[in-house]
Amino acid sequence: MKRAGTLRLLSDLSNFSGAARLRELLAGDPAVRVRCSLDGRHLLLLRPPGAPAPQLLVAVRGPGAELERAWPAGHSSPLDAFFLPWPARPALVLVWESGLVEVWGAGVGPGWRLLQSTELCRGGGARVVAVAAARGRLVWCEERQADAEDRLRSPAAAFSHCVCVRTLEPSGEAGTNLGRTHILLHHCPSFGLVASRKDLFLVPTATTWPGVGHILLIWSPGKGKVIVVAPSLGLSHSKSLNPGRGDTWDFQTLIRGLPGLLTPRQPLTVHTWAPTPQGLLLLNFRGTVSLVQSHGGTRAVGTLQEAPVSLAGSAALGTFHGTLACVLGSTLELLDMGSGQLLERKVLSTDRIHLLEPPTRGGLRLLSALGLFRVGWEAPQGLELPSAEDLVFEEACEYYQRRSLRGAQLTPEELRHSSTFRAPQALASILQGHVSPSTLLTTLRAELRDYQALEQLKAQLVAGDDEEAGWTELAEHEVARLLRTELMGDQLAQLNTIFQALPTAAWGAILRVLQLQPDGNGKLRSQAPPDVWKKVLGGTAAGKEPSNGILPLFELLCQCLCRLEPRWLPPFVELAQQQGGPGWGAGGPGLPLYRRALAVLGEEGTRPEALELELLLGSGRPKAVLQAVGQLVQKEQWERALEAGLALGPSSPLLRSEIFKLLLAEFARHRRLDAHLPLLCRLCPPDLAPAELLLLLRTHLPDELEPPTPFPEPRAEPPLTVGLLRALLEQTGTQGRPSGPVLSLYEDILWDPGTPPPTTHSPTPAHDLCFFFFEED
How does DSSP assign 461-519, residue by residue? Predict the structure, then answer.
């Protein structure tokens, strides 16, 4: 039965940030380079050097800010740009011809930020001619001689390039970790670089020396070898090339040692190169498509109905489900990869179309100014998919079998006719139309479609199709499904396993379920219903260790945030503390949430100090806040300690008063708080009387071993004087000044408008003032 190719609209681009600019660049510049992130959420558009601004646009599907950059005239734009498949955050790398590299990242917070900037080329005259990002590595072809005339005349100058590699890995919140430079090939011609999922292809270009223009190389980092291939000769040779062992090759020595490769041949005339999971596709000017496989073999795939006229014409190649898709101008041709037979040919409404990698489960994605489309095959009409009713009994059969203690195997037919299992029969009745609540029916059908799609996704993963994106999607499905269960025993253990294996995908599912969004002030907000938070905050009993190392969901999320974005852990815990109800974990009899989060960070004394302080300060618990302020006092971070007290609202007068007394004691002992006296005055409790203030000061003033002298000893700690104390006394005195008789023996001195008599001796130490005030006691 003949299959029918379909072109389905996935998005009109309105759900992407910067949609208008995105459509403008796609419609206006045929030479724009388009790349897609591994999860499909980010689109990168890079215009060639010399194009009008903006030269770079990164659009995001759903919530998130776009990245738009422009370089003025006289400043070169990037040579190329790539998305990095990092687990912690979306990231992209920009590479200039000069060797400059910028790594940009987007985390939980809004917007993009520059993570790192560095140089690739060591020599001042070197320039980058090609670059690729392959499996956590940055590979580039570097020209060590910049004289264009010599490069065209001299064979020696044509072999003045080298191919280098550096590892590129995420490094926590700080940014990136670039490894040292390792040279793979010395004295080689100019090569273009094309990266597939597992291999890197070094392909000849228009500037490659003609004598080696028929040769390409395949470097497999995972296998530690390089394969030299001459497709027109049908030859391939393999050599060891493992940077970890220090392997490097001189290109000319490598080629001379391989028999038959230097047989005179015409250079490869290739219009378009395209990586696929099977190898490297190449389209020549006769319209023939060939596949260079990862092991070095070459085979013809098929011939297109039309051939590219010149290099100026656009062409794009891709594969899905054993089908080759080629977009040439405004024509889409689908060929069978096995036989080369033309399966379908479609004429499109625009000639500015880009194929996006990697392919999706249903086919290939096509991007144009009109929208994002998917080309795929419709299921044959003779294929019978299981009905929703059948899926109900099959799923119920597996569920009851897991819970059953009997040894006999349960079957779907037994569930259909037995009166013991009534729930699946009731659900099947709803699906058959015997019961007619339309809302419930729609919801149940959506659930069953999700189960069916999940089973299809698992089957594709078993077949090995689109593994990385498939595992990510599977993890998101499983996390969302597990959150709908009771999360006890096996379900919680399975959730722990998913977070350990695929933390980024698992956290992405949590973001959607909890509907977490930053509010722009360093805080998080959530629109999730209370029953979801009840499941998140539930935990083990107080003082009880998790069994077999299986963490409750809240601890699991804290651990995941510590790995991905540590700076967002305190806002997350603070948001969780605002949720809750009786017995939820936020306000129940168990451990407070901040202590559960601290337990994830490790034992006391081994935790990151900054995170521990933020968790204590944001806990809202008086004991924890006082502990944090005490740590700040020990580190002499006076301003932050004062701000922690001032941040407390009017509902915490006792806690503010305790913090004030703690800092007032330090103010009495030494003079390192004098610079922050205005903040200390603001922290002073409004109901504190001057006599009470002086009594507190007297308690903490250092003992006078000798009679006071007019001037302190050299390098001795200056004493607390009345001049310094006056601001605090005025602060207490202005709070509720009596309108009637004076209530205190000494309170009237604070409002004495008179000028004190001149004096020739030193300021009165506050110790003497306190002694004068309290000698009657």
Answer: HHHTSSHHHHHHHHHHHHHHHHTTS---THHHHHHHHHHHH-HHHHHHHHHHHHTEEE-
User: What pLDDT, in 10s, does the model give residues 79-136?
Assistant: 999 988 765 577 889 999 988 999 888 765 567 888 888 888 876 778 899 999 887 8
The CB density around residue 67, as the number of other CB atoms within 10 Å, is 21
CA 457 to chain centre: 24
Is the full-model pTM beyond 0.90?
A: no
pLDDT tens-place string over residues 18-31: 889 899 888 888 88
The answer for residues whose C-beta is within 8 angstroms of residue 753's C-beta and 6 or more apart is none
Q: Which residues contact 116 (CB under 8 A, 6 or more apart)?
A: 101, 102, 103, 175, 176, 178
Q: In whole angstroms, what is the distance from residue 355 CA to residue 302 CA?
A: 19
Report the C-alpha gap between 516 and 524 in whole angstroms: 7
List CB contacts of 400: < 8 A, sequence separation 6 or more. Answer: 410, 415, 421
CB 577 within 8 A of CB 620: yes
Residue type (1 letter), 432? Q
Closest Cα partner for 219 from 253, 173, 254? 254
Question: Parallel, antiparallel, or unpaired: how do β-strands 182-188 and 249-250 relate?
Answer: parallel
Q: Give all strands (DSSP E) within 353-393, no chain letters.
A: 354-356, 364-368, 371-377
DSSP 80-98: EEEEE--SSS-EEEEE-TT
Which strands, in side-by-side order, build the sheet including 364-368? Answer: 5-11, 371-377, 364-368, 354-356
The count of other CB atoms within 10 Å of the CB of residue 167 is 16
Asked if residue 140 lies in contact with residue 95, where contact means CB atoms within 8 angstroms, the answer is yes
CB 85 within 8 A of CB 468: yes
Tokens at residue 110, please? 């809004």
Output the CA angle 715-717-722, nearest 5 degrees.
130
The encoded tokens of residue 253 equal 């020595």
DSSP 595-630: HHHHHHH-STTSS-HHHHHHHHHTT--HHHHHHHHH
3-state secondary structure of 71: coil
Q: For residue 698, give the amino acid letter.
A: R
| Main-chain dihedrals φ then ψ at residue 470, nearest 5 degrees | -65, -40
